[in-house]
Write a structure and sequence with these properties.
Strand content: 25-35%
Structural class: alpha+beta
Number of helices: 4
Number of strands: 5
Shape: globular
Radius of gyration: 14 Å
């Protein structure tokens, strides 16, 4: 079965972020906290249809992928995370880009 042609696919956005935390945060627990925040704020249907995925994370900086229509809600859910497991965190959004390459070059390489 063929996939959708590029003109019919949902467009994606890449959100660059930074985490300020007391200890090191692992990728799996951050992803779980983000999904839990989306579900608690907007419900399961929107969380499943937002196309949210943690593309890259090195312990302090990372990139979240989501659909363009869901970008603002994903950013709200992300900034409302205050704990990941037992670790208190402060998530900061650095910027948004349309491609992952540009997002890394513009916001993460300093």
């Amino acid at each position: 079965m063929k996939g959708l042609p590029p003109s019919l696919r949902s467009r994606k956005r890449y959100i660059a972020f930074r985490i300020i935390a007391e200890k090191e945060v692992d990728e799996r627990s951050l992803s779980r906290a983000l999904v839990d925040s989306m579900i608690s704020l907007f419900g399961e249907c929107f969380a499943a249809g937002s196309g949210i995925r943690l593309e890259y994370f090195d312990g302090k900086k990372g990139i979240i992928r989501c659909y363009r229509e869901a970008m603002e809600k994903v950013m709200v859910a992300f900034t409302l995370i205050d704990r990941i497991g037992e670790i208190r965190v402060i998530p900061l959004t650095i910027g948004v880009s349309g491609t992952i390459k540009r997002c890394k070059r513009k916001y993460l390489e300093v």
